[in-house]
Design a protein that fits this description.
alpha+beta, YbaK protein, nine-stranded mixed sheet, globular, RNA-binding
RNA sequence: CGGGGCGUGGCUCAGCCUGGUAGAGCGUUCGGUUCGGGACCGAAAGGUCGGCGGUCCAAAUCCGCCCGCCCCGACCA
């Protein structure tokens, strides 16, 4: 492709609404343009990269035994009512009516459609397994789209769904998809990690997220270098040695007689842990935060150390609740008699869940359920009794691994893929059944497998860039090679460049030729910005010495070549840059 | 949805506080010079100042309402 024949609107400055580096570069390099919030157009270069990623996904999925299909974008309401998600999905589901006032949605995900397809056409275990995927736009009316392609409302996704006869076969399919995902992201040249994830509302036995490591990532990953355990922070368990006595579990153990109430300290206007810590001169680790939560089964209180974060998902699991959210301030006042910031477990008439760590704490500082007062020297068992101890806090750096008890570390990641075991959730609800070898009707055992295609592109840029621009991995670069002629008024140079370009295109090299009649500086700056892995320059060195310069974008390495050995050298360089 | 911020040529922004001729840089067009790191000289085109209403002799500027966009929190590929 010649530069002058395509559409690559590069920009010197990024628009001010672009915040993170991938968004800025995607925009500046002319890969995408925004139409409205969370809705983007893919320009020629952006689309080429998307297509290369899609092709890698296709190869990976096909190798894993899946077949590509294309499902409708617009889906009628009744299918979504069958699964119960017309009500359950919430406002992210874009709903609209046609001219007959019949309701539809633009599909945010396609379990319903695929189940409908399979239940009508698969009747026997002999036809299983079936594993189908598509690469298509999705629409989710996100509350807050952000960061360009990272979280759009309309976005391109690979979504796959598998159907097996039983759990055992479903596990095998899951493993194949797990392997396929590892292959796909490796081919894309990404530094990533597969981590255990919470199964969320979808349910099922287990689930893995594929995280591209990048410090701008929205997700925190907790991992153990010693044994290889890695999990999303939402899910990551914390190892606790079970030996040792739990300090303060009874009044006798701490050698105290029960007193009516622990000492009360006035803490006027002090509400946050930091404020109370400074005011009372105790470290945050000696303070216990009390949070009242509202569940589908009433209210409860959760206790974690002042320097820790409550994990609502873990709390939800500990309470066996379907929903858990923080209670409103008004509820706090009604139930505890104080506003948030002065809550405490002493005398609280609610079910109390305390984090495991609290078991070992003594002389805690807690809110007194009286505005602007805190208790000091609180002991569990003497002053209050938790209904249970559980792992309900976010893991942090240094926390013990649940498997080997070695300290874990935290890294940030961008979730580019997610695989789930769905079980029979949808097949039961939607009556999708087949006959097994005994002639019995059985629900399909399903799995679902997603990859954010646009997000994968954004994540790659997030991971591979420098101050000058993008550094594309060879496999997903819009073009692998860029040819630059330095002076378009010099016929020797343009003739050579033109011949080079024609010959390389003819030989199947994936090449773009910058044939614009602009200053060398602009071409070179644009080349850095666009980030094609290999650059070939025909300029003064060719004029003077007859040599052609090859530059590797990633390393900056410059290789000098004669015209004769160019193809051989480029072929070798290209190969060395593949994953 | 709650909190914060922004909206002025294609892009980045100044002007607004203190009302009085709409500006700069980049980009674009034309002419010329230049040609290995966003070159230089000269000329030019291009703006309902987000929208509606109000105050005023006079509004980009002050006031009100609305719209759009971005950032921080709860959801997700």
């Amino acid at each position: 492709m010649k530069f002058t024949q395509t559409f690559i609107p590069t920009l010197k400055e990024a628009p001010k609404d672009a915040e993170i580096v991938s968004h800025k570069l995607l925009f500046r390099a002319g890969l995408i343009r925004k139409l409205s919030s969370g809705i983007y157009s893919y320009l020629p270069l952006g689309l080429r990269s998307i297509q290369k990623i899609s092709d890698i996904i296709r190869r990976g999925m096909d190798k894993g035994g899946a077949q590509e299909v294309l499902l409708p974008l617009v889906i009628q309401k009744d299918l979504w009512e069958e699964s119960g998600r017309w009500q359950a999905y919430g406002k992210e589901l874009l709903r609209f009516q046609d001219r007959h006032e019949k309701w539809f949605t633009v599909g945010p995900t396609h379990e319903e459609v695929i189940v409908d397809l399979v239940r009508n056409d698969i009747q026997s275990y002999k036809q299983l397994p079936v594993n189908l995927y598509q690469i298509a736009p999705k629409f989710r009316d996100e509350i807050r789209p952000r960061f360009g392609l990272m979280r759009g409302r309309e976005f391109i996704m690979k979504d796959g769904y598998s159907f097996d006869r039983d759990e055992e076969h479903a596990n095998k399919t899951y493993q194949k998809m797990y392997d396929a995902y590892n292959w796909i992201f490796k081919q894309c040249g990404l530094n990533f990690r597969a981590v255990e994830a919470d199964t969320g509302t979808i349910g099922g036995k287990f689930s893995h997220e594929f995280m591209v490591l990048a410090n701008t990532g929205e997700e925190a990953i907790v991992s153990c270098d010693a044994c290889g355990y890695a999990a999303n922070r939402e899910k990551a368990e914390i190892g606790y040695e079970t030996s040792g006595s739990a300090a303060g579990s009874t009044a006798e153990e701490v050698g105290r007689t029960a007193s009516p109430a622990p000492p009360l300290a006035a803490t006027p206007g002090m509400h946050t842990v930091e404020e109370v810590s400074r005011f009372l001169n105790v470290p945050p680790s000696k303070i216990v935060k009390t949070m009242i939560v509202k569940t589908d089964d009433g209210f409860a209180a959760a206790l974690v150390r002042g320097d820790r974060e409550l994990n609502l998902i873990k709390l939800k699991n500990a309470l066996h609740a379907d929903t858990v959210e923080l209670a409103t301030d008004a509820d706090c006042v009604r139930l505890a008699g104080a506003h948030g910031g002065s809550l405490g477990p002493v005398g609280l008439k609610l079910k109390i869940v305390a984090d495991n760590e609290i078991k070992h704490m003594e002389n805690m500082v807690t809110g007194a359920n009286k505005d602007d007062f805190h208790y000091t020297d609180v002991h569990a068992g003497r002053d209050f009794t938790p209904g249970m101890f559980a792992d309900i806090r976010n893991a942090g750096a240094g926390d013990a691994c649940p498997h080997c008890f070695k300290p874990m570390s935290i890294t940030r990641g961008i979730e580019v893929g997610h695989i789930f075991k769905l079980g029979t959730k949808y097949s039961v609800k939607m009556h999708a059944e087949f006959l097994d070898e005994n002639g019995a009707s059985m629900p399909f055992v399903m799995g679902c497998y997603g990859i954010g295609v646009g997000r994968t592109l954004a994540a790659s840029i997030e991971q591979n860039n420098d101050k000058d621009g993008i550094i594309f991995p060879m496999t997903i670069a819009p073009y692998e090679i860029e040819l630059i002629a330095i002076n378009m008024k010099d016929k020797d140079i343009t003739d050579t460049a033109e011949a080079m370009y024609n010959e390389m295109s003819g030989r199947g090299f994936d090449i773009i030729y910058d044939d614009r009649d602009i200053s060398p500086g602009m071409k070179l700056k644009d080349a850095d910005l666009l980030g094609f892995p290999v650059r070939i320059i025909i300029g003064s060195k060719f004029k003077n010495e007859g040599t052609i310069e090859i530059k590797i974008r990633k390393t900056g390495e410059v290789i000098t070549s004669t015209r004769q050995e160019l193809f051989e050298k480029i072929t070798a360089i290209r190969k060395s840059l593949l994953p």
